[in-house]
């Protein structure tokens, strides 16, 4: 792939003149707020200060995805989130001397599947290495990883970015995937500062991880966040990882540098352990801005490891010991090379349980998010950006398709009700799709009432609100109880329209003078009068008819 | 009966000539009587007696588990034994009780073997004397043999026992001494650079290092994972085949064991020696070799020649680089393997509690001896990013050349290589400790470590007694996974040389006297 295709047009400028000196202090939260306001006026500010040379940022990601498997990468211990501390620890996980790693086939398959989904070349032979460092939750004193020859290389991850005023313009981007390597997770340390002790939980120690290394093809937090989101959806579609960031199944390290376009890349820093989707873009943008500020105020960037502090909203340099060190890599002597097969090289005499067949895994790949989106657009005629929203929310596609199956309404109209109204409620109250008080079947029933002309669209919204707050009553029942059916009686409607016209003489006059727009106000008044029970089309017709019949007042 | 081979005692047990409990008691008594050898770190008397009782019940019911049922064996103290302290002769693991059995230990127990104890070694098997463990040096039983003592008496300068007692070689010195002094019928050692063959040679017993990948390492506390192989120490070649039959084969817990099915075998008695081709690697005629060893070696070659075998001089041109290369790879893996001993999960933990780093440092300083720490230091140095190419990668390349050396020789028609096992026979402890561990290992592993580098099977067979009446052993190196061929040659040689039995009459009589008094046993 040509590198130029990946270029980024975003330009960064110095954020402002405030002091970033001691980032560990709480005031740096304020700085971030200031910084974000300065983004918008950046070019103006920079221009005034004669610093109009823009900055470009370069962002690369290393993403650790926990493999979804019953047992750990090299031991038979179960994998389970939030189990009692140290309840899922085999002798190997506790690094008892003499224990040996035995590779979990399921983890290998997960990595191969992920590699295939990310358009990687799968290495038929890959190797394991030991990476050494002392840390309390690294029980063996080394991590088994794939340093020399990883399982998958040279892939790519296409993703899309919503841009434009209303975030409804889609821009396609691609980030190159350098490699995917299998490795062990570490345990967890719990530091008890008052008791001056560290507690270790080895439940997570040895759980299989896929480290996905992405080339520095991104240029801002938003792009990185979009790429990570796409990866997350792919992993979830494959089932190779649950990729739940809140449960630590997806952890992001970002390599960040800034430079002036046309000049060599700057010194990069690594922001470690960004474990929240919400803060991913923020952490990266903060670091970019910090580097720009540092450089513009005559400072230098150190090749260091930094952590993002969620509470303070800034990145902080980590202590040296946790940062750069010599890992003294060495081949893992207890694991023979990992050999994978394809249909051609498959040994005939070996049981299929003992070999991993790349071709077979390729055939079994499920639809990836991009394919799912294309299918949604094609099948239902919805907008591409709507397909993104549908995929982005867990369970929303199923919700949408259940509604479609149970309603006569055109999917293009249905999508609006789901994305604007239902999703609006869900977001506002932070509720998951599957926990929605408005079930897809009840929504379909409501949309059918609307579609068949039983109720007006504004009445439908009222019903929807009642459904959101209600106890699962059917929309038909709500309509009946609240008497929200459209007024079918033409005389009654005419009567109401007349009353409205009588009460709004000024408006009537305006219309008659040719200001047709004012008619909408009258329609609205009728709607209010009828609590949404009138069909706007019929009302418009009646009003127009009555306006013609009514004699025009002579101007004095 | 005590001097019987494993096969003989197995037959005697089957016939009911001796009971497992009697046998076990006798052996435990012998272990007590030879305590001064320091061959055992822990003697598992209670467990052994219980196992013996269970075995006896099986025999009574005619439900023998296998050839080893009721037979006392010993295990080097770097194999994990469930519920039994496993120390690696190090402060670091004093008091460490593994919750699981090494696969080889489990296989022995599954056969009904009686575990009488855990044998002494150099700390973490790093050494060639069995002198550098935290429980003190192992004494070579030959120091107390009538053969040697008589020679010492004639030479007044070595008649002082304190000055004349000999080292066993190492690092499996405890196992070799145990087999040699009749306190077990067979013992497990480990062999990384010669740790089974070297003490076997100095103690006059058979020491087999099987092909890498034939026997599971699961539960063996590693020295160098890519070279470690459980070793087998026995009093004759047939016994090592019996043990190999029990221990060999794929283990799902050790991914480096081969998948191919392993077939236990008995060694055929007669070999058509005229079909045999013995290779004599000329590079093994190294400076520092004693003239006696050289003489025994060439005599052995002559023996084969006389019997009609083809004896050819061969070249293993990279032999001289082997030991240096071994040291680099060994140190690197040691540095890595020892990283787990941080005092957190198990083993020694220092009381230093200023910080986690301080705890690590103090724990490791207190837990490891100088030899171990020296290897960790150099290993980490070799693995540093700036040194990795120069040392580790280069050593790996040399290792490849050494492997190719052997491959070429074997593909040229040579069946088995014949070499010395050590430069000379056992030396007195006072002499041995004049040199440091590193220098000693360099000299003592000279002939043995290449087989580990290449993963080949090799066996020490006692060949003759020296001028001072000390054992001199020779080594046979075979093709990978061709243990049958290797042991067949070794057995033929063993029969030819008729190596004398160690005379430990004083000790044996003592035990016999005790048991006579107790009237607890009557041996035919």
UniProtKB/TrEMBL annotation, chain A:
It is found in: Mitochondrion. Residues 398-547 form the Asn/Gln amidotransferase domain. This is Glutamyl-tRNA(Gln) amidotransferase subunit B, mitochondrial. Allows the formation of correctly charged Gln-tRNA(Gln) through the transamidation of misacylated Glu-tRNA(Gln) in the mitochondria. The reaction takes place in the presence of glutamine and ATP through an activated gamma-phospho-Glu-tRNA(Gln). InterPro entries: Asn/Gln-tRNA_amidoTrfase_suB/E (IPR017959), Asn/Gln-tRNA_Trfase_suB/E_cat (IPR006075), Asn/Gln_amidotransferase (IPR018027), Asn/Gln_tRNA_amidoTrase-B-like (IPR003789), GatB (IPR004413), GatB_Yqey_C_2 (IPR023168), Gln_synth/guanido_kin_cat_dom (IPR014746). It comes from Gekko japonicus. HAMAP family: GatB. Pfam families: GatB_N, GatB_Yqey. Belongs to the GatB/GatE family. GatB subfamily. Its EC number is 6.3.5.-. The keyword Mitochondrion applies. Subunit of the heterotrimeric GatCAB amidotransferase (AdT) complex, composed of A (QRSL1), B (GATB) and C (GATC) subunits. Transmembrane segments: none annotated.
Automatic annotation (TrEMBL), chain B:
It is found in: Mitochondrion. The active site is at residues 76, 171, 195. It comes from the Eukaryota. Keywords: ATP-binding, Ligase, Mitochondrion, Nucleotide-binding, Protein biosynthesis. The keyword ATP-binding applies. Its EC number is 6.3.5.7. It is an enzyme of class 6 (ligase). It catalyses: L-glutamyl-tRNA(Gln) + L-glutamine + ATP + H2O = L-glutaminyl-tRNA(Gln) + L-glutamate + ADP + phosphate + H(+). Pfam families: Amidase (PF01425). InterPro entries: Amidase, Amidase_dom, AS_sf, GatA. SUPFAM superfamilies: Amidase signature (AS) enzymes. The keyword Hydrolase does not apply. Residues 23-144, 166-487 form the Amidase domain. Allows the formation of correctly charged Gln-tRNA(Gln) through the transamidation of misacylated Glu-tRNA(Gln) in the mitochondria. The reaction takes place in the presence of glutamine and ATP through an activated gamma-phospho-Glu-tRNA(Gln). Subunit of the heterotrimeric GatCAB amidotransferase (AdT) complex, composed of A (QRSL1), B (GATB) and C (GATC) subunits. Belongs to the amidase family. GatA subfamily. HAMAP family: GatA. This is Glutamyl-tRNA(Gln) amidotransferase subunit A, mitochondrial. It comes from Gekko japonicus (Schlegel's Japanese gecko).
